[in-house]
Structures are given as C-alpha cells and as structure tokens.
Design goal:
The chain is α/β, with parallel strands linked by helices. 33% of the residues lie in helices and 17% in strands. It contains 13 helices and 20 strands. The strands form 5 sheets. A 7-stranded parallel beta sheet has the order 5-20-19-18-6-9-10, sandwiched between helices. Strands 1-12-11-13-14-17 form a 6-stranded mixed beta sheet, sandwiched between helices. It has a 3-stranded mixed beta sheet with strand order 3-2-4, with no helix packed on it. A hairpin with a 2-residue loop joins strand 15 and strand 16. Helix 2 crosses helix 13, helix 3 packs across helix 13 and helix 5 runs parallel beside helix 6. The chain is elongated, with a radius of gyration of 23 Å. The N and C termini lie far apart (66 Å). The N terminus is likely disordered.
Length: 414
C-alpha cells in the first residue's frame, strides 16, 4: 500500500552494557537544576591563578557581586611563551552567592601547557565534527598529527560524536580516508549506536521490536545490528504525502511502531514528519528518541548548515511529544565509555570539543576536564556571553593540532 513504510531485514544484535538514561522530563529537570547550581557556585579550572576570591565588604556593594574575567586572546605558539595577566571587571548580581572571579579558560599557547595536559590526563574523549574535520569531508589541519601523537604516548582515545549518520564501521572508514588514522570500532560512540543501546535497555521494561527511523543509513545499520526491525530511513526519502495518503495509512501499521528514532536526515520530508507524528498519536507507548539536538554544523567560515534539531523540533511541535535526547550534553555516551574501559578516576579524563552547549556542558556535568578548540561552532567571543559563564572550559586552543605542534617542540619534557 502506498502509505506503508518499507521494512528493513532484521539482523542479530550484539550484547553490550546497558545505559541508564533519564526520561525527557527528568533530563529537563536535571538541566534546570544544573543551571541553577552553576549560578550559585564558582567555577574552578586548571589554571593555578584563575580563581580569585574578592575581599570586598558588604558595604561596598548593595548585593553580592560576581566578577568575571575577560577571555584571553588566543595566539599562536610562536607568539606566546608565558601566561597573560587578565584584568577583571565587577558587575552586580541578583544571585545570593559569594563575590568571586569567573575563571577564564587556560590558553594552550605554550609548550608547558600541553605538557601539563598529557601528564594530567590518561583518557581523551574527542568530538569529531569541528575538531577532526569540518563539513563532513574536510580534515582540519593538525588533527591527525595530534591523534597519532596521543596514541604513541599511550593515551586512551574515545570518539564521542553526536552524529547519527554514520555507523561505527563507517566512522572507522572515515578516519582512515580523511586522516589516515586507524581508529577502532570499540573506540567510537556515535549516537546511532547509543540509540540502539538505549532501546535495548528499554526492552527490559516493555517489548520493542519495530522502529521507525528519521535519519540516514548509518542509524538504520546500528539499529539493525541490535536486532530491531527498521522502517523508514532513506527508503522513505521520496514518498509523497497529502491528506488522502495520510488517511489511508493503516492504523495497525502506525500502532505497531514501538519506537521512533530521529536524527539528522537530509532526506527529511512531509511524509516522514507525518508518519512519525501518526505513530506518536496512535501509540502512546511509542518511545520518541532524539539522537541529538544540535542546531547546526559548520561547513565554512561564514556558513552553518541546519542539522538534527530541525527534524526533531518539527516532529515534537506537530506531535506535542517531547523526545528523550541521548546525544551530548546527555551523559549517556560518557557513561558508556567509563564502563567500557573501566575508568575509575574521572579526574584523569578530558573532553575535547568545539561546542560549549554540548561538549563542554557534558564535561561540566560529568566532572571531567574540558578543552575547547576554535575550529568549529563556538567562537572566542562566545566565551564572554553571560549565558555561558557556567560552561567555560578548562582549556582553549586554536586547533587540536596545536597540541601536537607544541608537544613536538618540547618532547624532552615528556
């Protein structure tokens, strides 16, 4: 029948550890609590002189005062060899918290900065888009050098990406094709894989067999690998939809969908949005899972292309159902990494990414260190925005390649 979606052959799943993921309502509550706490507590970073406690008396200000420091200027390794003293400015705050200085990130601009990083951290959790490559096909200069150097130093590498368009096998092939770097499937944690883990964990509570996918083939492949019967995906890219077609879709077919998984989908269309909303209308028990809620990806210096949030928000708006987000800043992927590698001390982990709202927020929630690179979405000016003072990274570097370039110059210190 024209209205029915196309099924994909089920394959045998592979046992993995189970993720523990909050509901959408719990996620929203946790994020609000985290934001409120962040405004009442000073940030503490790696910089030895970053946190300054003011001794101003109550008579000097009518209300408690937060003193943020200005963000340091990022310079090349050849121009900076010592830390720069950053002035502070005082602003009044309505929040009942002590007068403190908001610590700026430590600029990775000298060889000793990088020596400290490789000595202090054993596990490096790296985002991919905006850190290793841009636009999906343009490698960022120096990223492969840093990966090879970290591997040679015996560091544990894990790649935690909000992309659901690639399966783990496709990620590994991309590392080889773009960076000539040998990544391994057990090191890759894309959101297609995490979505499959999530649904398998939910099977302990209720049966889940049929899954409708708004997304790319990599997401379909990961769900297939866990034994789910998959509908939708690229198979529905060119299907028409109007009132008559919508009315003709068998109710039993929509009711049989146990889970809807939505990620970035360049073939997103009215059919997919309509059928997805129908599944949520006719089956109140249908799980609605968002692989991530990223709004855009950088494709050039002056252009960001819309990604998963455009699809997720559209379905949420027309259905009135809020999805569970398993992408960053949700801690699902990081918790899988901790269990997979048996990591006992999170203080020895560092998250490297290009977005404050996902990568750095994840690190803050999980209690790990963080390094922001300026080759992706977040720019240096964003560090000054008042809405971001609770997610300032511990370190900031122009590129991931900065680490390799500076380490090579200071190899005798390692």
């Amino acid at each position: 029948m024209q209205g029915e979606t196309t099924a994909v052959v089920k394959q045998q799943g592979v046992p993995m550890s189970q993720p523990i993921i909050p509901t959408a309502q719990e996620q929203e509550s946790q994020q609000e609590t985290f934001a409120a706490q962040s405004l009442q507590q000073p940030l503490i970073t790696q910089a030895s002189s970053a946190l300054q406690v003011s001794s101003m008396s109550a008579s000097q200000f009518s209300s408690p005062t937060i003193i943020p420091q200005l963000t340091p200027t990022i310079a090349s390794s050849s121009t900076i060899t010592s830390p720069t003293i950053i002035p502070t400015i005082a602003i009044a705050s309505q929040f009942a918290s002590p007068t403190v200085a908001i610590a700026p990130p430590r600029s990775v601009s000298s060889r000793l900065d990088v020596v400290d990083i490789v000595r202090d951290y054993d596990t490096f959790l790296l985002d991919c888009d905006g850190v290793l490559w841009n636009g999906g096909s343009e490698p960022i200069d120096g990223s492969a050098r840093t990966l090879r150097l970290l591997r040679a130093l015996g560091k544990r590498l894990a790649f935690i990406s909000n992309s659901s368009g690639l399966s783990r096998a496709q990620f590994v092939a991309k590392f080889k094709r773009l960076l000539d770097f040998d990544a391994h499937e057990h090191e890759v944690f894309g959101t297609g894989y995490l979505a499959a883990l999530y649904l398998r964990a939910q099977q302990q509570l209720s049966p889940i067999s049929n899954v409708y996918v708004v997304g790319m083939q990599g997401l379909v492949d990961e769900l297939q690998g866990f034994g789910f019967t998959v509908f939708g995906g690229p198979a529905d890219d060119n299907k028409p939809m109007d009132d008559k077609i919508f009315a003709a879709i068998p109710a039993a077919h929509a009711q049989s969908i146990d889970a809807l998984v939505c990620g970035y989908d360049p073939g997103f269309n009215f059919y997919k949005m309509s059928f997805a909303s129908l599944c949520l209308q006719l089956n109140p028990k249908c799980h609605f899972v968002a692989t991530n809620r990223d709004q855009c990806d950088k494709v050039s210096d002056d252009r960001n292309i819309p990604v998963a949030e455009g699809m997720v928000a559209a379905i949420e708006a027309v259905s009135g159902v809020k999805p569970v987000n398993i992408g960053k800043p949700s801690p699902v992927g990081l918790e899988q990494i901790v269990r997979r590698f048996g990591i006992a001390d999170r203080r020895r982990m560092i998250v490297i990414g290009d977005r404050l709202s996902t990568d750095i927020a994840l690190a803050k929630c999980a209690g790990t260190a963080s390094l922001l690179v300026l080759t992706g979405v977040t720019k240096q000016k964003d560090l000054l925005h008042p809405d971001n003072h609770h997610i300032i990274p511990d370190y900031v570097a122009p590129t991931l390649g900065t680490l390799a370039d500076l380490l090579k110059l200071h190899a005798s210190k390692l």
